[in-house]
Amino acid sequence: MLPLILLGYDERDCLCGVAALAGDPERKGVSFLCATTGDYCDFVGRPENKGTFVAGVLAELKKMEIGSITLTNLPADSDSIAVMQLAASENGYRCFARTAYVCAQVKLSGLERRPGENKPVLPGKKMVRRSLNAMGREAPVRLDHARSEQEILSILPQFMQAHVARFQATGRVSNMERPERRLFLEELTKLLSQSGRVVLTRMMSGPRTLAWNYGFQFHGTWFWYQPTFDSDLEKYSPGFCLLAKLIEEAAENADFSTVDLGLGAEEYKERFANQTRETLYVTLRASRAQHVREILRYRAAEMIKAFPTLEAGVRTVFNRLRKLKSGKPPKRGSV
User: Fold this and answer.
1) CA–CA dist 260, 106 (Å, integer)
2) What tens digit of pLDDT does each residue of 308-323 get?
3) Domain residues of the chain, as ranges?
């Protein structure tokens, strides 16, 4: 995939729109450049120019003979949706949108608060208090926020090492083991620290770090982007405690209205969330056959999911076909 950045300018030659895409020359397809790293992806532009800009992007892709456009994690409340659907038909594309994810959020004004106090009442408060007391035997537990490029880059190696160790402890592979992911966070830090949009939060007791969150602060929202914690402290739920303290701090700061918990349907997020934000998986196809096939595939998958026994059977068949394709014989007794 190759980066494909399309820029829009108004009549005064001022930048008014950015489409950060990635192109696949062989398949004549494009997608959002950050589709695999961003919780939300969208066309960036001024509201008054958004319709013209999105239409211009689709027209340009049509000129480039791009037949397949796949836009993942596009917010359902984005003003891009309506203008895209209109511009798609005008440029010979057929548009289909379905739900991708439902992201948990904490609306800070909706939190319960004690009478006469600004501090919110959060779930699991007794457990959090016991855990913080246990982890803070040597020194009180506190939050430390690194915001400058130098500060964050000095801490990132420790954060990455903890993330890898945490995943290994649960039999998984951390994306931090890939050099590309580590480089991505380093470059993101350099870019966003200049405007104060990135913050690496540590929950600490004395010099020891208990948990981390690499996140963002933008337009009144604090983003819970990539957390991890010290695996040796798992019994104290340090990740849950960090999120609780982060929400408490955000709730006491008038600059914030929301804590966005991002992609992923982890149970602990549901305990804090009091609202959600939906994202869409949008496809635009020049071919009518591809468009119909996209819809049929989705409808069939949804129908299969409605019947767990059928879904299990289909997965078994696909697993067997995958093994046959790779040359590995299926296990004895498999369907």
Assistant:
1) 6
2) 675 566 567 667 767 6
3) 2-101+279-301, 120-251
